[in-house]
Task: structure prediction
Amino acid sequence: MKTMKKALALMLVLVMLVLAVACDKSEDKNNNEEKSATELLWENATYKEDTTLGSGSKTVYVTVVALEKSIKVTLKTDKSNLADALLESSLAEGDVSEYGLYVKKVNGITADYDVNKAYWSFCQNGEALMYGVSSAEISGGESYELVYTK
Result:
C-alpha cells in the first residue's frame, strides 16, 4: 500500500511538471505570435536600419513604415521625380503604366492587395497624398513616407 501511494505521488508530481512546462511553452508561443507579424514582414527587408543610397546632387528622405517598425532612407539622386529615384536605388519595385509607378515592393517588403489586401500608401508628414510617386517632383530636401497599409 505504501509503495502504491509513493507511485501515485510520483505520478502526480510528474503530471504537474509536464503541465507546468506545457503552460510555459504556450506562453512563449503566444509572445512570439504577438511579435511575429512585424518580424515576418521585415524578415526579407533589404535594409533593416537607416541607410543612405545613391550619389546624386539632390537629397530626398524616405521613411519606410511597415507595421511597428520603420527606417529612414536618405536618397541621393539626380532624378526629377520620386518614382525614378526609388527605381534607380532599387528601394522600390512595381508596375509602370500610363498612370505612373504602382509600387508593389519597398525595401524588399511586398504589399499585394490581391493576396492580403495590403498596399503601399504614399504620405508626407503623416498625411496620405492624392497623387503617386511618379508625380512627386524632386528639388531636394523633401521628406516622404511609404507606409505598408492593410
Residues 51-149 form a domain with the Ferric Hydroxamate Uptake Protein; Chain A, domain 1 fold (CATH 2.170.130.30). Residues 17-23 have pLDDT under 50 and may be disordered. Residues 2-42 form the longest helix (41 residues). The CA atoms of residues 94 and 103 lie 4 Å apart.
